[in-house]
Amino acid sequence: MTMIEVNQLTKTYMTHERGHSMREIAMNLIRRPMKEVHAVRDISFSVNRGEMVAFLGPNGAGKSTTLKMLTGVLHPTSGEAKVLGLTPWKQRREYVRHIGAVFGQKSQLLWDIPPIDAFYMNKAIYGVPEADYRSRLDQLTTLLQVGDIIRKPTRQLSLGERMKCEFIMAMLHGPELVFLDEPTIGLDVFAKESIRDFIKDMNKQGVTFILTTHDLDDVELLAERVIVINHGEIVYDNALTNLQRMLGDKKTVRIVTDTPIRMLSLQGVTVMNSISDVEAELEIDTEIIPLKRFISTVNEQCGIQDMAITPLPIETLMKELYGQGSRAMTAAAASAGVLAHQSQQGDLSM
Amino acid sequence: MIAAIRSTAACFWAVMRTKIAEQMAYRSHFILSVILLIAGDLIVPLITLLVYRSGATFAGWTLHEALLVQAIFGLAKGIAFPLFFGMVNTTLGLVREGTFDLLLLKPRSVLWMTMLRGLDLDDFGRLLSGGVLFGYALSGIDAPSIAGWLQFAALFAASLAVLCTFALLLSGLLFQWVGSSRVFDIFDSVTSFGMYPGTIYSKAVQQLLTYVIPVGLIANMPAVALLGRGGWETLGAAGASVLFLALGLWFWHAMLGRYTSAGG
After folding, report:
1. Which of A13, A126, A181 sits opposite B107 (nearest CB)?
2. Inter-chain contact A113–B22, Cβ cutoff 8 Å?
3. Model-level pTM?
């Protein structure tokens, strides 16, 4: 069942720009040159109820603008979106009652007083009945293991504890859809794990999550599907596992040899990190050189002592994806035939 | 309808409760703020007192009558500042940081949320200084009639509407003039005309201050009503405050449409 339906959403805005010289700063007092920014260009996609979708893209790609339109904060320049059957920016008050949002860099808590006071305030703002509030608060504090800290002043809490409280704040009114903007930024591994487990739990209970993050571990551990935006356009919309196929079948190989590796010269092999004469991290394009041939050639030329083969790290995949032109990517994706999700949805445009 | 009012009242009380809790976290700051506000608000009345002691007067106004104008100004600010003017600071800070988004994510009117977010309890201290001055001024004039009190009540409500409109205009400007903390200076400059008896100005300026930028409604007209010098036709001037308020509401919402958030 479709929860979010976005059609040709576009956001363009004007911003002023100036250089850094004194003359330009002075001129800026008189005249401000304006520049049109195409933050989001004609994007279309849909999200089903219960999905966990990661929105990825480099800084300034347009993902935050897209999410702001989907939360009703910004009006689009053109295009349509229906979320939970409502148009977010037109039916904002009714719509936001059904959604939650957690921003890793914007707090909804009140700095000087305990989170429990902020929860109580949100209860009144959302009009949550007392019994529902009590049971949800119990459930959430138990899941996040914060029962004893919600009565301490917020400023005395660690970043991880504060973030857990941000989640409670966003979930107390029982939203069906939650937007997460960098929810694990700055957290230690334990806090990250706890937050990720909580998100998975909530997702199992039917809550749909839209996640934007630069932490690719979040993506690997949480999201079944990724939508990558670059220069305001969707350049990828599919399962994370399919991304590798789309960018060619590449592997990372960490290898230790008997003789120096620099003697090795093979097409389709790139040295990513030369650790010593006899140890290196290589990237292998298996479409050019099959793994079997690579192993036998290296063994013949240098003598393999030790070797570990792993899929290309997601960071590398993302860098490749961000680095390529969106139109080229769309064409490549179409010809590779990996846009399974697009064809399943039927009406998605890349 | 009753449910909506009850829900709105519950929301107001919940926010008020958290504001009190926030103020109590820094009690010394709260107490110092209240004392400084009271002291600041008593400067103009003290100057008035010095002027009258030196033998000079505002033509046609006794000391107590002149102080009545300033007392009403203080009372109006004592209500309007904690309730309405906090939203100017809220807009100033949240728009600059891009965190105004958080208010848009609440299922309430954005204006209501902005006002609630800006509730500023320190400013209730102005009520104390205004109240004391009001009592002192009343002690030196003839007791107002019931009709005078009724006129005063209506015109005082108009005074609050005018101040609320100023808060809306300043807050609205900040969606466009992001981070311009000088907007308070605009308010101080314009409303300082309302701290003195209206008759010290020329007829043209009095008209301007009643019907165009109705700062005369903030204190002068309610004082005139209490002194029994205003006819029922002064209530017509209150109509100007309703129009002014409507303009303020329209302007604020129009400017909200210009909110562009901040980079993510």
Report:
1. A126
2. yes
3. 0.81
